[in-house]
């Protein structure tokens, strides 16, 4: 086990007095490695540190390497954030050594990976007992139910961290609580989400529940374990902001009978530091595949709100046919576009690579910027030239777009992305759907679902158009961005919730179990 912080910070930081006692709240973050979970968790830790808390991020080496650059940059500004590594027990967990080193753990090894993470409980507990200052709160991603025991053994509260919207959380909760799928045999049969004032229709394929719907017995057991841990938490931290979805934040808090702290958009941490391209580009797990300054120069040459940005995140993978249809639809739309495609050298055959080269040559560098690999997404979305976002509806990306005031073309692939699409299209009214109704990733039975070039073209033209409907969509998006910015400022709801967390979980009586009530 190694620490990636200077000994002076590790052993005796600003949050500790001369007796080794904690003067300020000390949050220990246990994040999940997937970028949609990891990036906002780290940003939340950084924000809490700006409010005076000490934050320790614990992770295996393969995860720590992804966030070390960000943590080290904060340490140079003397923010009390530290990163501590704990090696996984590959042998005991049955996880092949190195299986956690890529962009994602192979699906067939996910169970082993979760088991390996659970085995870190004892070494993390020993470390926290041995190294001052003592923690005052555990903040764990909800997929780490074993942290219930970690917090109980340490005698401190535990908060569940969610990198998704309250609307999606409440929908999933109500679908399960009211047994909405009982007697529904077809996974694509429409079901009304119970317990909500407005009517929303979903299918089991779109919203099966966390770790539900996997035809392997131990996954159902794990899903039950996760649910028990969620119910036993001392509170919830959500990367959203109150003004975005007040009724759903209140509804989820009432349904769970626990405090919900909305602290987002947590990406605003990077805006508050500086507007330098290098800072905005640094939000992420890997170095950008394009020089941020080069990307900035390309965008600087475009008219305001004229560019379409396209990205499906780090997990979703368009098949070769879909890459071609998407590219042709973007070309036909007539708008300049930045497209973050997978690293074509690793992910696609020569046919796709040749198509992309021909597309670039045909459309021209002035109208088409292809990024083959990791893109500086926050930098791109924050630029005035960008007018819309074609997205897979991961909540991290969705909230970044909301904060940037951008309408979206919604193209969900799996998990909570279908509920996020409903949030954008049906609740907020800032999105246009391409019409995907079934999961495209992690399909139980492999099925080709193709969004044609005509649909892509129509959706892009619709969201970028000059008509009254398009302008109203943009007006709503701008209004939400203003609310997001206000939430993060002093006096805003998210700013106040961050300070409340720091105050509530400071040392003293408030650190006892149940302090979040």
Short description:
Its EC number is 2.4.1.-. This protein is an alpha/beta fold and 517 residues long.
Write up what this structure looks like.
With 517 residues, the chain is of the alpha/beta class. It has a domain at 288-486: 3-Layer(aba) Sandwich (Rossmann fold), CATH 3.40.50.2000. Helix content is 44%, strand content 12%. The protein has helices at 7-11, 35-50, 61-76, 90-93, 110-118, 121-130, 147-154, 166-177, 217-231, 246-256, 268-273, 277-281, 292-300, 320-333, 344-347, 350-363, 377-381, 395-404, 417-428, 453-464, 468-488, 493-504, and strands at 26-30, 54-59, 81-85, 137-141, 158-162, 191-192, 201-202, 236-238, 260-262, 307-311, 337-341, 368-372, 386-391, 408-410, 431-433. The strands form three sheets. Strands 3-2-1-4-5-8-9 form a seven-stranded parallel β-sheet, sandwiched between helices. Strand 10 (307-311), helix 14 and strand 11 (337-341) form a beta-alpha-beta unit. Helix 14 packs across helix 20 (453-464). The longest helix has 21 residues, at 468-488. Residues 1-20 and 510-517 have low confidence and may be disordered. One of its GO terms (molecular function) is UDP-glucosyltransferase activity. It is an enzyme of class 2 (transferase). Keywords: Glycosyltransferase, Transferase.
């Amino acid at each position: 086990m190694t620490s990636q912080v200077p000994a002076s910070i590790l052993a005796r930081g600003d949050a500790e007095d001369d007796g080794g006692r904690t003067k300020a709240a000390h949050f220990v973050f246990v994040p999940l490695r997937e970028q949609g979970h990891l990036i906002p968790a780290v940003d939340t830790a950084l924000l809490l540190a700006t409010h005076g808390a000490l934050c320790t991020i614990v992770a295996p080496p393969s995860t720590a390497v992804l966030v070390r650059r960000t943590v080290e940059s904060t340490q140079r500004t003397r923010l009390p954030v530290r990163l501590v590594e704990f090696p996984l027990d590959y042998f005991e967990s049955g996880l092949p050594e190195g299986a956690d080193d890529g962009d994602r753990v192979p699906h067939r090894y996910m169970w082993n990976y979760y088991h390996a993470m659970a085995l870190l409980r004892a070494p993390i507990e020993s470390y926290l007992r041995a190294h001052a200052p003592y923690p005052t709160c555990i903040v764990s991603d909800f997929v780490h139910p074993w942290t219930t025991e970690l917090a109980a053994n340490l005698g401190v509260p535990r908060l569940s961290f969610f990198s998704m919207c309250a609307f999606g959380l409440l929908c999933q909760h109500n679908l399960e609580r009211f047994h909405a799928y009982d007697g529904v045999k077809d996974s694509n049969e429409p079901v009304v989400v119970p317990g909500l004032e407005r009517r929303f229709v979903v299918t089991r394929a779109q919203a099966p529940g966390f770790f539900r719907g996997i035809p392997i017995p131990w996954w159902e057991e794990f899903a039950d374990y996760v649910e028990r841990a969620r119910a036993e938490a001392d509170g919830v931290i959500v990367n959203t902001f109150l003004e975005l979805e007040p009724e759903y934040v209140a509804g989820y808090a009432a349904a769970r009978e626990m405090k919900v702290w909305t602290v987002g958009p947590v990406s605003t941490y990077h805006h508050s530091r500086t507007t330098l391209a290098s800072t905005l580009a640094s939000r992420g797990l890997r170095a950008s595949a394009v020089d941020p300054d080069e990307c900035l120069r390309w965008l600087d040459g475009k008219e305001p709100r004229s560019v379409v940005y396209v990205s499906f995140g780090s997990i979703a993978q368009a098949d070769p046919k879909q890459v071609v249809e998407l590219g042709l639809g973007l070309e036909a739309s007539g708008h300049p576009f930045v497209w973050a495609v997978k690293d074509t050298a690793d992910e696609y055959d020569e046919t796709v690579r040749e198509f992309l080269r021909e597309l670039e040559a045909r459309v021209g560098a002035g109208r088409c910027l292809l990024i083959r690999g990791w893109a500086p997404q926050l930098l791109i979305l924050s630029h005035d030239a960008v007018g819309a976002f074609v997205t897979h509806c991961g909540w991290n990306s969705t909230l970044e777009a909301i904060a940037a005031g951008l309408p979206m073309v919604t193209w969900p692939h799996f998990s909570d992305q279908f509920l996020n699409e409903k949030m954008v299209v049906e609740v907020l009214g800032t999105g246009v759907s391409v019409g995907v109704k079934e999961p495209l990733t992690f399909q139980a039975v492999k099925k080709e679902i193709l969004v044609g070039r005509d649909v892509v073209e129509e959706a892009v033209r619709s969201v970028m158009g000059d008509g009254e409907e398009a302008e109203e969509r943009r007006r709503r998006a701008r209004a939400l961005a203003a609310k997001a910015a206000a939430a993060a400022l002093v006096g805003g709801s998210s700013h106040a919730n961050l300070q409340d967390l720091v105050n509530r979980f400071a040392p003293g009586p408030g650190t006892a179990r149940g302090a979040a009530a």
